[in-house]
Design a protein that fits this description.
The structure is a single chain. The chain is α/β, with parallel strands linked by helices and 707 residues long. The protein is built from 27 helices and 18 strands. Helix 12 packs antiparallel against helix 14, helix 13 packs across helix 16 and helix 20 packs across helix 21. The longest helix has 34 residues. The chain is globular. The two termini are 49 Å apart.
Length: 707
């Protein structure tokens, strides 16, 4: 239950913002969001003795807050007060770097400065964004450059031998970090670091020497993590949050039981989670690092005396090599993987995720061998850690630990793939998508990939039933008017006490905007005819005499380019096409044209349908070329669609249309960004009026005046 002290605190800090900022106007929807968040988090269940209670979603709320509500202020203020009052961390996550930067650089400082709420905060990043000083110094000081050109157990991190320019870059990074001219954060380095080079100087949790590392005191990752323990608010991204809970929670971020999560841009969460629980590995690369297991574990045995562990690890690695070689032979006769001049990298999607009988034994053997290898290497790693406690500063021991850590990480990845390949899901459960791709660059090399088609069960188990509380919010969470799709895809439907709320928009849509559906003859199902009609219509829809902005959104790059090339010269000269120039340059040019009293037209794709903020006259017309249907052409989408069909469902109606509804609302949302904006949305897709689902899509849009 919400206490009087908590109510008063939220009210007083909110009032302080209003008093300090003459132009600030409290909004009814924002106040509702503040109250809903506070009430939800007040229902958080605490530990009883040594046990956590069974959570059923009582402290989880889903809030759709349209543009203009002021969502970030609401969840930072209410979430911050409740986290401090209840002794929790507020973990705020987003899908985009832009929102994370906005939260850290603008929104949180605003709340602290104007509300009087003394929140401390920090940005959390994954380990892979930080330099490993031990590795970097080892490459640039303890070894000569010539030694970098020799094979070693870590060469699998490179896809080529290091070039002189890369060696020079390593030296530059070492100097800059040593003299504290750089903090070791990849994102703050003054030039782009190629992935292959960065992999050489970063680290993962397996290769890290942890407290035994001689450079622990200056390690950027540990310094950043130490900071997280002493702040009220941690800002991260969805991927880092999901990675943390998949490792058990509390590894990088605060433990779920001690956290109030605020998940902004929550409409991305389900797909992010599916990607997080997917796994893949290359057959060729696996054979490469498996060949190094023997030398590394023998070296580790010399330090630990664990002869049996070393012997078992070597045997498990040999079993993996034998079974992978068998797979290489088995796949050589698979027709679906026969390369041709048209397709050098064919892919075989295993139907319904059920392996053919001839492959099941090999998959099971591979899964057993991979699990065994992962366990043996992990046990050897633990033994090495114990040894290092008594031999700190032993360079050879530390090098062995780093090499073994690399192998542990690769073995864990191998095990993840084959555990999924070996899994047969129950009849009524969503299947696991499994597919194999033939690699063009290596003779007989294949990429094994597997992914659950739904992360609902994993999210429910690893996050929702453990978190002290959670807020999921975004401008667009409902699909076709309800929250069913989000609840289903995220596993929240299994928690009966989750609350949902759709806030009213502060905008007066019927006065600020218009919706126009031109009478096109061609359907988008006729791409050529549809493109020709768009070329005919755009000069009629866009008035180049007015110094205002127009945003034209396409679902296909090919159609966008064809339309751009087919327009009259006068209109073509006003175009700014996504991909032709950097986004920042495109937007700067757009605003400069308007400032110079010229019309400007932006052509954009799906990424411009979300997160692009063009208030006022920088965008008074949004033209949508066609409905944003995303047909399932990827292995995960195809597997899920087939499962729905086999159960008597219609994947187009159950998935494609609801997901298109969310994307369409997001695209339309580019028009009205403030209470003073005005303009028109034009949709060049006659399926809105000709197909039965069109009415549902129209009903989900803001109530613009129809013309």
């Amino acid at each position: 239950m919400l206490t009087d002290a908590e109510k008063d605190s939220i009210r007083d800090h909110y009032r302080a913002i209003s008093d300090r900022l003459p132009g600030f106007r409290p909004r009814a929807s924002q106040r509702r969001m503040l109250a809903e968040i506070a009430n939800a988090l007040s229902r958080a269940l605490e530990k009883v003795g040594d046990d956590w209670p069974e959570r059923e979603g009582e402290s989880i709320t889903v809030i759709e807050g349209p543009t203009g509500v002021g969502k970030s202020l609401a969840y930072l203020l209410a979430g911050g007060v409740m986290a401090r009052a209840r002794g929790k961390k507020l973990v705020v996550t987003s899908a985009t770097v832009a929102l994370q930067e906005q939260l850290v650089n603008r929104d949180l400082p605003f709340v602290v400065e104007n509300s009087g709420l003394p929140l401390t905060f920090a940005l959390a990043k994954g380990r892979g964004r930080y330099l490993c000083p031990y590795r970097l110094y080892g490459l640039t000081a303890q070894h000569s450059q010539q030694s970098l050109l020799q094979p070693d157990p870590m060469m699998a991190l490179w896809d080529h031998k290091p070039e002189q320019a890369e060696l020079d870059a390593l030296s530059a990074m070492a100097d800059a970090f040593h003299y504290r001219k750089w903090n070791g954060d990849r994102d703050t380095w003054d030039s782009i670091v190629e992935d292959g080079l960065w992999a050489r100087v970063t680290n993962d949790r397996h290769g890290c020497l942890k407290t035994a590392c001689p450079n622990r005191v200056e390690c950027p990752f540990y310094l950043a993590r130490d900071t997280l323990e002493n702040v009220d608010v941690v800002v991260a991204n969805h991927d880092l949050m999901l990675a943390d809970v998949s490792m058990g929670g509390g590894v990088i971020l605060p433990a779920p039981e001690e956290s109030f999560y605020c998940i902004d841009e929550a409409h991305h969460l389900a797909k992010k989670a599916v990607n997080q629980f997917a796994a893949e590995h290359s057959l060729g690369q696996a054979l490469g690092w498996l060949d190094k297991v023997g030398a590394v574990v023998v070296h580790a045995e010399a330090h630990t005396g664990k002869a049996e562990l070393a012997s078992n690890a070597i045997d498990s690695a040999a079993a993996c090599v034998e079974t992978l070689t068998e797979w290489q032979w088995l796949l050589g006769s698979e027709d679906s993987l026969a390369a041709s001049s048209d397709n050098l990298e064919p892919s075989w999607l295993i139907e319904d995720g059920v392996l053919p009988e001839r492959l099941k034994t090999s998959a099971a053997n591979m899964a057993i061998s991979a699990r065994s290898l992962s366990k043996q290497l992990d046990d050897m790693g633990n033994a090495l850690s114990e040894t290092r406690k008594d031999k700190s500063g032993d360079v050879d021991l530390d090098k062995t630990a780093t090499e073994l850590g690399f192998l542990i990480g690769r073995a864990e990845q191998l095990m993840a793939v084959w555990d999924l390949f070996d899994t047969e899901t129950p009849e009524n459960a969503p299947p696991i998508a499994k597919w194999i791709t033939r690699r063009a660059e290596g003779k007989g090399d294949y990429l094994f990939s597997a992914s659950p088609v739904s992360a609902a069960a994993s999210l429910a188990a690893t996050l929702w039933r453990r978190a002290a509380g959670a807020i999921l919010t975004s401008a667009t969470l409902r699909s076709l008017g309800d929250f069913e799709l989000l609840l289903s895809q995220t596993g929240l439907k299994w928690l009966p006490k989750v609350s949902c709320m759709a806030l009213e928009s502060p905008f007066n849509f019927d006065e600020q905007g218009e919706l126009y559906l031109p009478p096109l003859l061609a359907s988008p199902k006729d791409p050529g005819g549809h493109t020709r009609e768009i070329i005919e219509w755009l000069p009629k829809l866009i008035d180049l005499k007015e110094p205002v902005g127009t945003l034209v959104l396409f679902s296909s790059r090919k159609q966008m380019q064809e339309v751009g090339a087919g327009l009259p010269a006068g209109l073509r000269d006003r175009l700014l096409i996504q991909g032709d120039i950097p986004k920042r340059t495109l937007l700067d040019t757009h605003h400069q044209r308007l400032k110079d009293q010229q019309a400007s037209v932006i052509f954009g794709l799906d990424s411009f349908s979300e997160g692009l903020d063009l208030p006022g006259e920088s965008c008074v017309h949004v033209i949508i070329a066609k409905l944003p249907f995303a047909m399932p052409d990827d292995p995960v989408g195809k597997t899920l669609s087939r499962w729905i069909e086999k159960r008597g469902g219609n994947p187009f109606i159950e998935l494609t249309v609801p997901e298109a509804s969310i994307k369409l609302v997001q695209a339309v949302g580019r028009l009205i960004r403030t209470e003073r904006d005005y303009g028109r949305v034009t949709i060049l897709d006659n399926r809105l009026t000709r197909q039965s689902y069109g009415k549902k899509l129209l009903a989900s849009l803001p109530p613009f005046k129809r013309i």
